[in-house]
Amino acid sequence: MHGGATPIVNAAKLRALAALLAAALAIVAFNTPPAAHAQPALTAPQQDALNRYNQALADFKAVLSQRRAQITKKEPLPNLPGQALYRARNALMSAYKDLTDAIPARIGRPNKFRIPPAYFDADNEPLIDEYLSLFAIMQAPPAGAQHSATPFRDVVDLGTAIARARGLDEATANIAGRISLGIFFAETNGAQNIGNARSNKYKGSFQTGVSESQRGQRKWAAIKPQITAFDPALAARDDMEEARVGKIDRRYNHWINVRNALMNAHAETFDYIPTVVAQFPDPVDQLKLFELIQIVPAPTKSAIKSGNIAAYRVSDPQIMFYLRNNSMFNYGQADRAKTSATYREILDAMWLFNEKFERALSKYDEIKSQKN
Predict the structure, then answer these.
(1) Residue 133's CB: how many other CB atoms inside 10 A?
(2) Of 136, 174, 183, 332, which is most buried, counting CB atoms within 10 Å of its CB?
């Protein structure tokens, strides 16, 4: 090659270089997330919702970690140690609902807890597992608690017997037994003799206060002669448990706590069963309605007597507060803005109870099949 001469280009080398360049560009394009090209920027309200959700998630993880460390190190727990966990969980679900309201594309796959996906990110399932594990530790029965070998059957038998003593027919009494089991799952997730990490008042399998247990005891004494007449075996079991309880807190004998709680709060409500069943053929709806008798008794009884339970509307701020305190209309700004609701809307908002009630119904069917 001389001075100013033009160099000769090797065509084969040029083609090879072009091929390498094309391959490199293809790799870059393949590894660049599509969202980087297509996802629009978040609006200010959307970014705010995302920030609040991220903070709520971090807060929930922090309180879980703190409580686990305290338990592992056997450090003293604060009074009502479950309150901080409960509030952090609620804040997380509320923030996620606000996020999915602002960015619907964030609604993800179903989760094992049967929580509507708009309220809960399934990726957080392990956090709820840890939450439940911590509550199981904090609410463990005391050492002297008197367990039953047949806790579920006890609830069904007592509820059925109480309904029969009130003069209800066999079919209705069986439904009363099923409802009793549903309430047991709603109150304690089906665990017997537990404490309460969020209250110093309510204890035992049906979470009663001392005065409620005592009132139920008196009511039981009044109907026991009738029960003895048609079910002497159940009356004999009751005598055995009375002899067994001794001087412990009576709420920590499973049989006695269930019996007293049913007599205190539920026995008279069994009279409503035919009306409820006629309007709500779905057993889960039936269980929800009787749980509402536990939570907001006055308006629920009024709704039942109204002739059209589903359409009956509540708007009292105190009643709405009680509903929110029991996980209805409590997550996200849109839900919390509701100032009134019909009973159909209330039943639909009780989705946190669905999984518990379905387990109760399955256990009830198992008990009935064993008896048959």
Answers:
(1) 13
(2) 183
Alpha-carbon torsion angle 214, 216, 219, 220, nearest 10: -110
- Contact call for residues 294 and 183 (beta carbons, < 8 A): yes
* Tens-digit pLDDT string for the chain (372 aa): 333 333 334 444 434 444 444 444 443 443 444 444 456 899 999 999 999 999 999 999 999 999 999 999 999 999 999 999 999 999 999 999 999 999 999 999 999 999 999 999 999 999 999 999 999 999 999 999 999 999 999 999 999 999 999 999 999 999 999 999 999 999 999 999 999 999 999 999 999 999 999 999 999 999 999 999 999 999 999 999 999 999 999 999 999 999 999 999 999 999 999 999 999 999 999 999 999 998 999 999 999 999 999 999 999 999 999 999 999 999 999 999 999 999 999 999 999 999 999 999 999 999 999 977
| pTM of the model as a whole | 0.86
Cα–Cα distances (Å) from 205 to 162, 180, 183, 248, in that order, read: 18, 12, 10, 15
The strand pairing partners of 313, in sequence order, are: 342
Provide the Cα torsion 286, 291, 296, 300; round to 10°. 20
| The pair of three-digit structure tokens given for residue 76, joined into one six-digit string | 């003293």
- DSSP H helical ranges for the chain: 11-31, 34-38, 44-72, 82-102, 125-138, 151-165, 170-188, 210-230, 232-245, 254-261, 273-279, 283-295, 297-305, 317-325, 333-336, 343-348, 354-371
Q: Which among 71, 99, 204, 93 is positioned nearest to 147, based on CA atoms?
A: 204
Distance in angstroms (rounded) separating the CA atoms of residues 158 and 156 = 6
Tell me the C-alpha distance between 184 and 163, whole Å.
16
Handedness of CA 290, 292, 298, 300 (dihedral sign): negative
